[in-house]
């Protein structure tokens, strides 16, 4: 017996489990992309803050802007 056109088309349609699996994969891909964007944004903000501090130091005509210096300890602290 030969199958009709409609029976073949129905057989080729994805079922609910396949659709849910595909949606889950899409959501995981989007979540991964969003996580990567957050990490890049945090790194960019940190870099921009460092550059801003350097620019502020240079605008004050300081000569030791690149030297890391420890802040002095308060009097009486050990």
Would you count the extended β strands for me? 0
Largest β sheet strand count, sense and barrel closure: none
Proportion of helical residues: 55-70%
Please write the string of helix (H) and strand (E) elements.
HH
Rg computed from alpha carbons, rounded to a whole number of angstroms? 30 Å
Strand content: under 5%
Termini separation comes to 94 Å
What is the helix tally? Answer: 2
Summed over residues and divided by their number, the pLDDT gives a mean of 83
Uncertain runs: none
Taken from the alpha-carbon principal axes, the silhouette is rod-shaped
Structural class: mainly alpha
Explain this structure.
The protein has 78 residues and is mainly α. It has helices at residues 5-12, 16-59. The radius of gyration is 30 Å and the shape is rod-shaped. The chain has a domain at 7-59. It contains two helices and no strands.
List the helices and strands and how they pair.
Blueprint: H1 5-12, H2 16-59
Brief sketch in words of this structure:
This protein is mostly helical. The chain is 67% helix and 0% strand.
Q: What characteristics describe this protein?
A:
single chain, 78 residues, mainly alpha, 67% helix, 0% strand, rod-shaped
